[in-house]
Structure formats: C-alpha cells, structure tokens
User: What shape does this take?
Amino acid sequence: MGAFPEWDQGPLDDGFEMHRHDLAEDPNAFLAEVGPRIRGIATRGDLGAGRTIIDACPALEVIAIYGVGFDAVDLDACRARGIVVANTPDVLTKDVADFGVAMMLALGRGLIGGDHWVRSGQWAEMGMKKLQRRVWGSKAGILGLGRIGHEIGRRLEAFDMEISYSARAPKDHAAAWTYIPDPVELAAASDYLFVTLAASAETRHIVGREVIEAVGPEGIIINVSRASNIDEDALIAALSSGALGGAALDVFEGEPNIDPRFFDLPNALLQPHQGSGTVETRKDMGKLMRDNLTAHFAGEPLPTPVPEDAA
Ligand code: 8YV
Assistant: This one.
C-alpha cells in the first residue's frame, strides 16, 4: 500500500512477490486482478487497509503496518476472517515525543513567525517582535498516557512543567503527575494539552468544543495522534474566534488534502504528519514491518501484533 522509502522497498521486492497498489493506475482494476492472490499487505499507519481492500483479498492472512496507529485497518473485518495484524510500536515513541515537544516550543515561543520576522526584513524595519508566553513552568495535560504520552511527560519534566494526564486508570510510573481522567477537567488544568490517544470509534472527537474552550484563549492544543480525536470544525471555529490560543497539528482529516481554512489561521502550526519522520526511526519501522511479514510466512508468531482487545 506504500510508497515506502527505497531502503524498505528494495528488501520488500527481494523477499516477497510484490504488487504495488500505490502505483496502480486504476486501483479497482488492480484489486480485481491481483486481489485473489494477495496473502499479505504492507501498509502505512495513515493508509491502513479498509474493508474494500480486505474484501478484495480473499486469501489474505496478514496485514503489517508501518506505523503504530492501527485505526485505518478494519480490525473487525480482520477478526472475522482470522487475518492477523501487526504494527510498529516502541521504535517511533521517542521521535514522536520529541516532535510533540518541538511543536509546543515552536508555537508557544513563536519560532515560525520569528523566522519570518527576520527574513521579511520586519526585524530591521520594525524592531522587536510581539512577546510570547513563557513555556517552562506552565501546566501541561497529556490526554492519553500511552507510550508516546509518557515520553512527552518525561521531556516536559525538564521544563519544570506541572503535568497532568488522563488514562483508563492511574499509572504507577506516573506517580509524580496528576491523574485527571475527565478530558474537560484535564483541559481546564492545562496551558498545553497534548493529544496522544490511540484513535478509535470511542475516542472520535473526544476533543470537542467543551475541551477546546476549557484549554482557553491562552492555551495551546498539540496533536501528534490522529485527526479523528479532534472535532476539526470546532477547532477551526475556536482558533478563528480566539476561544483557543493556538493549535499545533501533525495530523488532519483527509490529509494531505487538509481543510483549507487552516491555511488562514496564524495561530495554527501545521505539519505534514512527520512525527516519526527521522531516517533512523523510519528504517527501524520498515525493518519491523518486514520482520512481522517474514515471521508470519515462516509460521512464527508476529513480533509485534496489534493487541487482541484493540478497538
Ligand atoms: C507514520 C503513523 O507517519 O505510526 C503511525 O501511526 O501515523 C506514522 O508513524 C506513518 O505510518 C508513515 O506513513
């Protein structure tokens, strides 16, 4: 389902008989022709494999995702057919955490605007740029304390931030942080709200108008998870009216063709879904994806299966 980088595509081509959905001129004709022979799917977190693809591949045994998110794979369809699914957890955790913190600093301290201020000559012409709010020592909320959320929290400790989090239950390894399970209450306790939830039907639009308004006019929302966790209409309305101070977003509905209203919002920092986008991590992700395929076809258990109870 790629495209994948050449260092992954090469070994895939060498190890498997590959059929490239991403290169097909007519994806439907492609599926009708090769679908019946497909036994495994290599896909990306953002592309997944929906019911149409799965139904078109009656001999399908395994789906290996190049990414930790499995929301774009129809897990119900897989379970019904006994198709096993693997993702690439852990290898990307720290990069995504770095990126979330980088977005907090970039938007919070006005780095992109500062760069423009210098390049455009405004610095020389007009002098000092508008001051920003302090980041260190402020309050951070982590909505969904999984692996990535926890790594973000560890980094924020170095900024002397007061950290709160939500999760299904309090976590022993986060004893120094405050557990606030209700998303609105968590948002109200946050200057920076990080959205780090694994997306599912249950979490869809969990960040809605109430949560957004609780973050407030001085607050910033940072999303490194999936767009579906946020109600984009409510987000755009709050960014336009000033009910929300800012949003730093690495994920969008319909990406890469995102809602054009974002382009006119100076208080939004827009990134092209690159949280895990370092050479080192992408190589690790590609290898783990191939290891899962190889293990399956060798009759071995998947190294990193998607959890059985995943929604
Ligand atoms: C990748 C991702 O950007 O891990 C995920 O769930 O969305 C990302 O790491 C994507 O899978 C690569 O296209």
